[in-house]
């Protein structure tokens, strides 16, 4: 029996710094309803979908900084999204800033969750590959302080059983690192859900910045093909508080082909009927890890050449 999962990527336009959670959740609910009306069983929202991309600013007041995080999920502001998902019978993937307190110490993560059609959280992921800086950089119109406001995720790259398949999550910069997809690929992942907020000024080099959208798709398409998995990449985009962010949300097949793509930089729902068995032919032939992958030789090369991983930082 074929495993088809009708899936939506719910791209978001800008979220202003003054916009409330209530306003933002209303937008998410509206797109969830549109996705359900198209027959979708799962909707993927962006990274940090509840607030503006606050790491673009230096925020020194701790109370102000805390206001961008969620100390519990669901909370009062996000409960309408969970209630509507349960009412409609649709699952969702949501990115947000997570604040937890352990032993009197605050810990902050860039997090995403997977929620099933009953409104129950069945998976959590915390972003591993944090880009940017831990201190303000001179000469930048907008900072990129993810390393200041988050710590690297401590949950690894887990996969979760749900929606008739093996589901995985990643967030934004994770998409550029092949290890992200490979760790989940080794666990038999069928679909990777990946939200992002990507500014065009992130490198300081105009030639590189001009390739932002090309590199965005390149990394996700390669990850999908090399690991025989669907990838759903969902953006928060447009000009947000003066910062331009890339859109072009996509749904990518295990062949590496883009099967749906957003055409605006506003709230937009794109959908695809994803055959979760489509990756099987790739897993059994070209990317049959058990037959063709040779990790023992990778280690041997490192031992013989003395190659080492680059130092942290």
Automatic annotation (TrEMBL):
<protein>
    <submittedName>
        <fullName>N-carbamoyl-D-amino-acid hydrolase</fullName>
    </submittedName>
</protein>
<keyword id="KW-0378">Hydrolase</keyword>
<dbReference type="InterPro" id="IPR050345">
    <property type="entry name" value="Aliph_Amidase/BUP"/>
</dbReference>
<dbReference type="Pfam" id="PF00795">
    <property type="entry name" value="CN_hydrolase"/>
</dbReference>
<dbReference type="InterPro" id="IPR036526">
    <property type="entry name" value="C-N_Hydrolase_sf"/>
</dbReference>
<dbReference type="InterPro" id="IPR003010">
    <property type="entry name" value="C-N_Hydrolase"/>
</dbReference>
<dbReference type="GO" id="GO:0016811">
    <property type="term" value="F:hydrolase activity, acting on carbon-nitrogen (but not peptide) bonds, in linear amides"/>
</dbReference>
<feature type="domain" description="CN hydrolase">
    <location>
        <begin position="5"/>
        <end position="276"/>
    </location>
</feature>
